[in-house]
């Protein structure tokens, strides 16, 4: 029991650090000058801060890691989750992610780097790791239910494609100024449907079959 209480206390302190950092960035328009000054401002010593985060970059990754955790816990808490198809689970994840991100949209807009091709912003490192694990879980489930086609050399890379989709949707939401983020909702539906159509039996297999035919017909 004592161990559980200690863990809860540690989680509470980590949450406090994240929220205080977000508040500082929003109020000052920049990161704190040093970990020493920031820790002192929230009644922690510098050494106590390092028990949770080793740098501001690590802290920023922690903020996005918490965003993933909140999203993942929210979707799995729904009774209907286990009855969802892979497509429905992916849709639920992205719709819920938008709701979670909205809680700290001002911070995200202030700190999100402009997207570059094939590049993940440093603060999304932990988020990316967790998302890929989530994606691989869905892919494995999809192969079993035949929603996802098991293709040699490609299946093991599917999670990379889904991460690219996630990064696209996060960046799309960052730039979305439509009421209620309606355009993001539409982008999620279209992106997930296209992605699952490509992972399922369809155009990709036709392309592969055609390529084999052309190769064998030379």
Protein architecture, described:
There is one protein chain. The chain is mainly alpha-helical. It has two domains: 1-54; 61-211, Orthogonal Bundle (Tetracycline Repressor, domain 2), CATH 1.10.357. It has ten helices and no strands. It has helices spanning 2-28, 35-41, 46-49, 56-76, 86-102, 105-111, 125-145, 158-174, 182-199, 203-216. The longest helix is centred in the N-terminal third of the chain and has 27 residues, at 2-28. The radius of gyration is 21 Å and the shape is elongated.
Write down the domain tally.
2
Radius of gyration: 21 Å
Q: Given the structure, what is the number of helices?
A: 10
Report the top-level CATH class of the largest domain.
Answer: Mainly Alpha
Class computed from helices, strands and strand pairing: mainly alpha
Largest sheet: none
Run of helices and strands: HHHHHHHHHH
Task: List how many beta strands DSSP finds.
Answer: 0
| CATH structural architecture of the largest domain | Orthogonal Bundle
Through-space gap between termini:
71 Å
Q: Please name the CATH topology of the largest domain.
A: Tetracycline Repressor, domain 2
Shape: elongated
Q: Fraction of residues in helices?
A: over 70%
Q: What is the beta-strand fraction?
A: under 5%
Uncertain stretches: none
User: What would the average pLDDT be, to the nearest integer?
Assistant: 89
Topology of helices and strands:
Blueprint lengths: L1 H27 L6 H7 L4 H4 L6 H21 L9 H17 L2 H7 L13 H21 L12 H17 L7 H18 L3 H14 L2
Helix pairs in contact: 4-5, 4-7, 5-9, 7-8, 8-9
């Amino acid at each position: 029991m004592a161990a559980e209480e200690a863990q809860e206390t540690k989680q509470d302190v980590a949450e406090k650090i994240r929220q205080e950092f977000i508040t500082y960035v929003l109020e000052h328009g920049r990161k704190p000058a040093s970990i020493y000054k920031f820790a002192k401002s929230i009644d922690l010593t510098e050494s106590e801060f390092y028990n949770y985060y080793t740098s501001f970059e690590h802290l920023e990754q922690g903020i996005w890691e918490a965003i993933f955790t909140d999203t993942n816990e929210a979707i799995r808490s729904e009774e209907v989750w286990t009855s969802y198809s892979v497509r429905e689970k992916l849709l639920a994840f992205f719709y819920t992610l938008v709701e979670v991100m909205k809680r700290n949209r001002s911070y995200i807009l202030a700190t999100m780097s402009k997207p570059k091709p094939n590049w993940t912003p440093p603060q999304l490192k932990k988020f990316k790791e967790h998302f890929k694990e989530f994606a691989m879980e869905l892919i494995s489930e999809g192969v079993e239910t035949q929603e996802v086609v098991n293709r040699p050399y490609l299946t093991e890379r599917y999670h990379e494609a889904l991460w690219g989709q996630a990064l696209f949707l996060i960046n799309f939401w960052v730039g979305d100024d439509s009421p209620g983020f309606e355009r993001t909702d539409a982008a999620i539906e279209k992106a997930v449907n296209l992605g699952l159509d490509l992972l399922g039996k369809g155009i990709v297999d036709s392309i592969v079959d055609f390529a084999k035919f052309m190769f064998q017909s030379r």
